[in-house]
Design a protein that fits this description.
The protein is an alpha+beta fold. About 20% of the residues lie in helices and about 35% in strands. It is built from five helices and eleven strands. The strands form three sheets. The protein has a six-stranded mixed beta sheet, covered by helices on one side. A three-stranded antiparallel beta sheet has the order 1-3-2. A two-stranded antiparallel ribbon has the order 10-11. β5 (about 95-105) and β6 form a beta hairpin. The protein starts with 8 loop residues before the first strand and ends with a helix.
Length: about 230
């Protein structure tokens, strides 16, 4: 199903792998299979290992397994970093941000940040914490000649107006994404900084998840330094 998305970078949240597959006694990880078909590099972070799976809109599973987030990048990956966001109050799943920096054909580098934030009401606080960590990362890499354009992608567990207000990024996709069988609210977002322009964006048809996928085609704007 991931191969149908036709994207150079695919960010996945709530990837479920039963324990039998984790132990290698059953089918292979579908993320690994998809990455092989796409010719993509796979980066995966296991968030939790629950005794079963129960999500609205998808068949439940009484079998233990791994719940993960992942990035599949068909473009060259020049660096990869995991940002730990910890546990939100009342949540039992730790949250992470995956920072995957890719290189475009032009040589321009772009950071794609994949995350799945808490379903509690404190998701805007986690989003701000993620932005703060990204700013610290930028200061750490201040020796770079130019700032790397950044895209934040994922199930942010907040509606679009709140997502756009929580950090200094612009929202791209507009449309309800959850639950997939009868969407009521947009929880899934692609947020971009001021170095990036939206060419087009859309909410896509269901692919088997309890959320509808979102996709955006983006263009990196010339830096001020190179424009002089």
């Amino acid at each position: 199903m991931l191969c149908q998305l036709e994207a150079d970078v695919i960010c996945v949240q709530e990837s479920w792998l039963p324990v039998a597959d984790v132990d290698g006694t059953s089918a292979n990880d579908p993320l690994v299979e998809a990455a092989a078909k796409l010719g993509a590099e796979l980066h995966k972070v296991v968030m939790t290992r629950p005794p079963g799976l129960s999500l609205a809109g998808v068949p439940p599973s009484p079998i233990p397994g791994e719940l993960a987030i992942a990035v599949l990048a068909a473009l060259p990956v020049v660096s990869y970093e995991i940002i730990e966001l910890g546990l939100a109050l009342g949540d039992d799943v730790p949250r992470f941000g995956q920072v995957v920096t890719i290189e475009l054909a032009s040589g321009t580098r772009v950071s794609v940040v994949n995350t799945h934030l808490t379903h509690r009401l404190t998701s805007p606080l986690q989003l701000r914490a993620l932005q703060q960590r990204l700013r610290l990362r930028l200061r750490r890499d201040a020796c770079q000649a130019d700032r790397i354009p950044t895209i934040v992608v994922g199930d942010l567990n907040m509606p679009r107006p709140l997502a756009a207000l929580s950090i200094s990024y612009d929202a791209t996709v507009r449309g309800r994404t959850w639950p997939a069988d009868r969407p009521l609210v947009q929880l899934d977002h692609i947020l971009i900084d001021q170095r990036i322009k939206v060419i087009d964006s859309a909410v896509l048809p269901a692919v088997g998840s309890d959320h509808l996928p979102v996709r955006a085609r983006l263009r990196v704007l010339p830096s001020r330094q190179s424009a002089k």
